[in-house]
Amino acid sequence: MLYASTGFTYRGLAPHTFMPMPGVHKKIAPGDAGDFHVRASFTYKGKKMDFSTIAPYLKDPLVLIGFVVFLGFTFSRYLVQHKVIPELPPQQGFIILKQLLLYGFVIGLLVIGLGFGLKYKELNHAEQNTAFQMLKGELKHNLITTSELSKNMLNILDKQKIVSEILRTDGIEIFEVLFPYENIELNPSVSVQSMVDTSFEQLILTGLINNELQLYRFNAAGKQVNLTIDNTLSVLRSLQDESGSRYTVKREVWESNLPIYRKINEFDVTVFQKSLTALERLRTNYDVTVKHAIDYLNTVKVFFSAGNAITKLELYKVLSKERFSLEITTEYSAELIKNADNLIGIEQALTKPSN
Questions:
Q1: Contacts with 301 (C-beta within 8 Å, 6 or more apart), sequence order
Q2: In 10 A of CB 279, how many CB atoms?
Q3: How many other CB atoms sit within 10 Å of the CB of residue 94?
Q4: Which of 31, 51, 140, 249 could form a disulfide with 40, with the two C-beta atoms 3.0–4.6 Å apart?
């Protein structure tokens, strides 16, 4: 006799011999034993589904809510099919069905509304992150521009000071009289005109204006000054960017995403706008500052040109342009450093809303 349910055949009464049916019982190879483990699964519409394939999707709140509702209705259906819940009279059944439909409709609306809200929040957060990442890239570019301008200004200021110190070389008495240290100390209490008048009075009183040896030293030193200026001018001209193509300030990302930035409470739009405006102003003043530095050196070069007479007017031009160029270069460098610190602080603050 053949027992299909067990997969064994029984022959005779004794002895009992059990034979496995072909194709029913399979041997498990030793190497396959490690792959044999218990899995949580269920059957849906005749298909066996593994729970581990569904679990990752339950991270979404809407999927989780739907899954709970699905389990609730499935469990209710199970109770009704197995008559765990007794049948109700038609009138009471209609009332309960009506309530189920009503509450089911309300729950459905709530889930839909919640879904739109979550999706809007998710998209809004993603949009903010994208906008901030783009702004960080633009801000990084502007920081590089600020850093390059700062380095150039320090270089220009250093070149100016070298020329100013040469003009005050010890041992050349006419230099000491014509170019007082008060001028490069930027002392506002001493005017340029008063220094010019005092210098020419000393030239006359000390007799240096007629001292051939001192005049020879003055002219020889003047030639060395002009050689230094020629080398310095080539450096300063190389740092110019009148076309505005080398040192650029970008704001395209900022302007295109400004409505997004205004929605974020953690981000101060006003502070960033002020810093960006200040940087653009500094970028414009960069060319002006470099021009004044070049103009100062050219004025000194003309002063020491062969055959040029030493006059109060020529000395006034040198001292006034020297003071003005040193003042604006020093102030400009300080503003650049301050603006760079502000931009660095803003860059650090940008990491907070995007997290």
A1: 225, 226, 229, 230
A2: 23
A3: 11
A4: 51
- Written as one letter, the residue type at 49 is M
Cα 346 versus chain centre, distance: 8
Are 48 and 41 in contact by the 8 Å Cβ rule? The answer is yes
Given the structure tokens 């739907």, which residue do they identify? 66
* Terminal-to-terminal C-alpha distance of the chain: 73
Strand order in the sheet with 18-20: 2-3, 8-10, 18-20
Of the candidates 272, 320, 330, which has an alpha carbon nearest to the alpha carbon of residue 299?
320
Token reading at 150: 């700062």
Closest CA to 323 of 184, 175, 154: 184
- How far apart, in whole angstroms, are the C-alpha atoms of residue 21 and residue 34? 26
172-224 pLDDT, tens digit per residue, is 999 999 999 999 988 888 899 999 999 999 999 999 988 999 989 999 999 99
Q: In 3-state terms, what secondary structure has residue 296?
A: helix
pTM given for the model: 0.64
Q: Name which of 273, 307, 333 is nearest 146 in CA terms.
A: 333
Return the domain boundaries, the chain. 134-354
- What pLDDT does 300 receive? 95
Residue 39 contacts residue 50 (beta carbons within 8 Å): yes
